[in-house]
Specification:
Helix content: under 10%
Number of helices: 1
Largest sheet: 6 strands, antiparallel
Number of domains: 1
Radius of gyration: 24 Å
Shape: elongated
Structural class: mainly beta
Strand order of the largest sheet: 5-4-9-14-11-12
Low-confidence stretches: 7-12, 14-24, 67-76, 80-119, 169-174, 217-243
Distance between the termini: 84 Å
Order of helices and strands: EEEEEEEEEEEEEEH
Length: 244
């Protein structure tokens, strides 16, 4: 079995800063990077050679969404061709206005209004269509991670996220492998393998996806109110204890 290992170093990064009364200054970042693929020749006696992916058809996507209650307020996706796979973004939300920009091909810029309440999500996706020759296997590997922290407090937020990969579309019966949840600051490896046992070329799709849910925290005045309330309760408890 012949193994042809290829390494690419595209980095897809999405960062966001949330500064609303509901979010109380939360920043988050998610990234997919270090994409690799390996081709395996399952039959060295036939006339077919393992075919490398057509990277000119590869696309990367990012999305930012702000939910108010259960209503999806804003969301944006955009594709980018190979050679322009590095994506980054800063998302600022002041409670009434949200805007973001895409620094990839086309220099996309979009804006939307929100009411400043709810929960915030950021997400990224890397998708790659591959033509797999007969008796050929292909494996994919990429790493993903996320970080989230509160800007106004010396606190760290566990940026719970969900990673998902699929080796081809659902019509082939393989709709994806769930890799589960992770915490802020920890990377998770996404991998998938597909082998074409047929006598005809098959186009498959590798997709690495990462979504991060940014948890809201109280505003500073809310913290002060809570601490003041605890102080009052403590004073009342102490006064009662002195009576007896």
């Amino acid at each position: 079995m012949i193994s042809l290992n290829k390494y690419l170093l595209p980095i897809i990064t999405l960062s966001a800063t949330f500064s609303t009364s509901a979010m109380a200054g939360v920043s988050a970042e998610a990234s997919l990077k270090n994409f690799q693929y390996t081709l395996y020749d399952g039959n060295t006696t036939d006339s077919y050679l393992p075919l490398a992916p057509n990277f000119s058809k590869a696309f990367g996507f990012w999305a930012i969404r702000f939910d108010s209650n259960t209503l999806d307020i804003t969301q944006q996706n955009s594709g980018v061709v190979v050679g322009d796979l590095s994506m980054s973004d800063t998302y600022e939300l002041d409670g009434t206005f949200a805007s973001w920009s895409f620094d990839g091909q086309g220099n996309l810029r979009a804006e939307a209004h929100t009411n400043g309440s709810g929960s915030a999500y950021i997400g990224i996706k890397y998708s790659l269509p591959v033509l797999v020759m007969p008796n050929t296997g292909i494996s994919f590997l990429t790493s993903g991670g996320a970080n989230s922290e509160y800007i106004n407090y010396q606190l760290n937020s566990n940026a719970e996220g969900y990673a998902h990969i699929s080796s081809n579309d659902c019509s082939f019966g393989i709709c994806g492998i769930d890799t589960g949840y992770f915490s802020s600051g920890f990377e998770r490896t996404l991998s998938s393998y597909y082998h074409n046992h047929s006598n005809a070329p098959v186009e498959v799709y590798f997709s690495g996806q990462l979504y991060v849910n940014v948890v809201a925290v109280p505003e500073p005045n809310t913290w002060i109110t809570l601490l003041a309330g605890l102080g009052i309760l403590s004073a009342v408890a102490r006064r009662k204890s002195l009576r007896y």
